[in-house]
Write a structure and sequence with these properties.
By secondary structure, this protein is α+β, with helices and mostly antiparallel strands. It has 3 domains: 79 residues, conserved putative lor/sdh protein from methanococcus maripaludis s2 fold (Beta Barrel), CATH 2.40.420.20; 92 residues, Beta Barrel (Elongation Factor Tu (Ef-tu), domain 3); 139 residues, Beta Barrel (OB fold (Dihydrolipoamide Acetyltransferase, E2P)). Helices cover 28% and strands 39% of the residues.
Length: 361
């Protein structure tokens, strides 16, 4: 025998379900749709490129010695002239002291030579010494003057070497990596750290020999700029094809200087798409908001006889301005839901078709 309380609960549940069904039937969700149609799309070769700063450096010490301190780390922003690292200066300090002592000695010798010339000139005027003795004294004076000049140059050189034990930033920028630690041996030419200036960037594209003709014949080059809105295609402000191929990879290098526009998020080492445009063709396009992405699934909701049907699609390029290319899964004149989340609700119905250009407004 059924429990009266359970019977009452089932009755309430069925009543609510019926009420909800009537509500859905009475007021179904209306979802705007857009007609998938062919659009003239630029075609050509698309290749991955890598962002790199135009101004980047490997900073090295100009003297040999142990690294006594590394005062910056990767990611630090530094100003031109700011201290980056110091090298043990005991050897250079000894050189400074030695050169200073040599200068004092040479200065004393010069003073003695000057006095000797003065005395010899007086004695020669009185006839006590010959002209040859005076000539010898004057030659000794010139040698003493040259000796002091040499000592002065040595003093300046040792002071400069002492200054080189302080490694400073050559310009304003970021430290991208540190390559040594305190205690490592620093020698001229061995990098201590790398840094770059975040003021200008370029995209480096390596093109295979088989694609070289297509890239050279391109009427326009576009780079997909990484932005928070998904990435717009921009044209480089300068481009250069290096004249030599890499012997191992058999590729040539395009260098594309890109504009550092507001909102751009160029990051050194980042991979971006580069398009060498050679013409145009008709392709099916959709607003990017109409595409449902769930893990590996890429689908859209197509309006059918009684609502919407999910259809898996294969996408092509991001065309910018909120549009994507559809390579497979749609036919021209298919009506696609602008909002796939709403279209997936039970009882959702297509609304009037909206223009493709206004789907993202």
């Amino acid at each position: 025998m059924l429990n009266p309380s359970w019977t009452h609960r089932w009755f309430v549940t069925l009543s609510l379900a019926g009420a909800l069904a009537n509500a859905w039937a009475a007021d179904p969700v209306r979802v705007p749709v857009v007609t998938a149609g062919p659009k003239s799309v630029a075609t050509g070769v698309e290749i991955d490129g890598v962002v790199e700063p135009i101004k980047q450096s490997l900073v090295s010490a100009q003297v040999s010695g142990r690294v006594s301190a590394l005062v910056v780390k990767a990611g630090d922003y530094v100003k031109a002239g700011q201290l980056l690292a110091t090298v043990d200066d005991r050897e250079t300090q000894t050189g400074v002291q030695r050169s200073q002592a040599q200068w004092v000695q040479s200065d004393s010798e010069l003073r003695n030579a000057q006095l000797n010339v003065s005395r010899t000139r007086d004695l020669q005027a009185k006839g006590f010494v010959s002209q040859a003795a005076l000539d010898t004294a004057e030659l000794q004076l010139k040698a003493a003057q040259a000796g002091r000049d040499q000592a002065s140059a040595g003093t300046r050189q040792s002071a400069l070497s002492q200054e080189f034990t302080r490694v400073t930033a050559p310009y304003d920028g970021y430290v991208s990596d540190t390559l040594v630690q305190a205690g490592d041996l620093a020698v001229p030419g061995k990098p201590l750290l790398s840094m770059y200036a975040p003021t200008a960037y370029r995209v480096v594209v390596r093109v295979g020999v088989s694609q070289l003709a297509s890239t050279r014949a391109a009427t326009q080059v576009e780079v997909q700029q990484p932005t928070s809105s998904g990435g717009e295609w921009v044209q480089p402000i300068a481009q250069q094809l290096l004249p030599a191929a890499d012997a191992l990879s058999q590729t040539l290098q395009w260098r594309l200087d890109v504009p550092n526009m507001p909102g751009a998020a160029w990051v050194p080492g980042q991979q971006v798409r580069v398009r060498f445009v050679g013409g145009a063709s008709q392709r099916i396009t959709l607003p990017a908001t109409a595409v449902l992405r769930r893990g590996e699934l890429t689908a859209v909701y197509v309006a059918g006889g009684s609502g919407f049907v999910m259809r898996v699609v294969r996408l092509g390029s991001n065309l910018g301005q909120g549009q994507v290319e559809v390579l497979a899964g749609l036919l021209p004149q298919d009506r696609v839901a602008v909002d796939p989340v709403q279209a997936g609700l039970l009882g959702a119905q297509p609304e009037a078709t909206v223009p493709a250009s206004g789907a993202n407004k």
